[in-house]
Amino acid sequence: MEQILSSIFLHLALLIGVTYLLSILFERLKIPSLVGALVLAMLLRETAIGETMLKKENFEVLTVLAQVGVLFLLFQIGLQLDLKEISTLGKNIVYATILNTIGAFILGFLGMLALGFPLLIAAVIGVTRMPTAEAVVVPILDEFKILKTRPGQIILGAGILDDFIEVFLVAWVSVMIGAKQSQSHSIETVMASAGILIIVGFIAYKWLLPFLAKLTKPTVKNFTLLAVAVLFLLGGYTEKANLGLVIGALTAGIVMRPVLNHYREAREGMYEFLSPLNYGFLGLIFFLWIGFSIDLKGVWEDPILTLVLFFAGALGKVGGMFVLVWLKKMDWKEAIVTGVGLNARLTTEIIVAQLLFEFKIIDIKLFTALVAASSLTTLLVPMLLTWFIRLWKDEFSPISEQGEVNAN
Questions:
Q1: Is 111 a residue whose pLDDT tops 90?
Q2: How far is CA 238 from the centre of its chain?
Q3: What's the pLDDT score for residue 186?
Q4: 15, part of any domain
Q5: pTM of this prediction?
Q6: Which of 13, 43, 104, 397 could connect to 129 by a Cys-Cys bridge, CB 3.0–4.6 Å?
């Protein structure tokens, strides 16, 4: 274990050090350091450094660190969420979720049929085009300070709803293949777990956490202890209940927000603590992990199949957002940024592909193409999102300044 830790720490020191040096260039190009870490890890994947980091025992440690990074990144995002502001976008978030998922499903389904795949396989692959990994893009939105704009809130809100779609997707595939884990992923279990989370979250939000906060002095240290306890409790519960770390981390931030709002100095101190921790350390670990997870070799195995899978999700989600433009719910620039942001994917697609391949529902050719398409998306979405935001950032005003327009 000592050798594993020393290897991980030394390689992380090198990677973070190089990222620091490259940040000089990134700042001039207005590229977030998180995206730079992703690209750096991807470029080093096939080198000796990449081979060392991808060893099973090393990558398991890196994965744990990355998941901790996700927890703290999205906890910080949750602290910034104002449920009243989000409620003004309620209909738009639902519309965006429905349109981006249906569009991606239809194109994925038709694309598979056009390539000669059976109806059932086409339907399953169509569903894999639907989920969104908002954990990849939300930190970028936050770093550019557009999280509280209409595109930022819709990406976050629709991404949260998509998390439930991901859970149902795994449940459906598990039931379809007759796997034993279908019981743990059953629809009833998921709904019950979500219901418990909502009830516990509401009680903590309204009464429990404000009461606990009054028992100690309102210092940054005390509130940090309370916040970390809540974060790991809800993160652990949602992971155990198959709801995912993302929902647990965001919920923890949301329920802690009223407590911090009552104590201005503690709130500002918490933000001053979290921001450098996330964007200077834990967030970098997470994006390095993503970079090492990207394998583009599969693109060349069957480029046509890979590109069909890639563009089915990309065009379906962006196209769905342009329906909102037609409905006058957003403008075309917001539609592009939102559509690109909702196109982020990460682990769920690969998990489902692995299940399907393991039980011989899909062959190695389709499995490889699914992994390659997911890797291609994970690489391109942060870069494209960064580019579009740089172009149009000043045109996205905060929700509070948009008034009732958002409610239309």
A1: yes
A2: 15
A3: 57
A4: no
A5: 0.70
A6: 104
